[in-house]
Amino acid sequence: MRRDRKAEERVREPRSIRDVLKRLVNDFGDGGLLYLLHQHWEQAVGLTVAEHCKPQKIVDGHLVVYVDHPGWATEIKYLEYELLENLAQIDPELHFEGVKVHVKGIQDS
What predicted TM-score, i.e. pTM, was given to this entire model? Predict the structure, then answer.
C-alpha cells in the first residue's frame, strides 16, 4: 500500500511536544479531560494538597484521587464540595458528580 506523499511529509514535519501530547491525550477517550484536570489541579487544591493528592482517573462522573496518607483522604473528603466548585469555576468541563479517594498502597477489599 502506498502512502500519500503529502501525508508522509506531514508525519515528518516537526511538531511541538505540547501538540504531540495533546493529540496523544485525546486518544485516551476522555476528550482530554484528565489532561485538563492535571493542568489546573494545583490551582484548584493549593500547593500543599497537590503535593500529597493526585487525580488519577474519572469513573462514572466521579473524580478518583490517590493520596499518599489516610490523613489526606480525610482532608479531600472534607474539602470535596469546595474542590468540586473550584474545578467547575476554573473550567466548566471540570464538572464531576463527586470525589472518590484511594489511599496509595492500600488494596480495596
Answer: 0.71
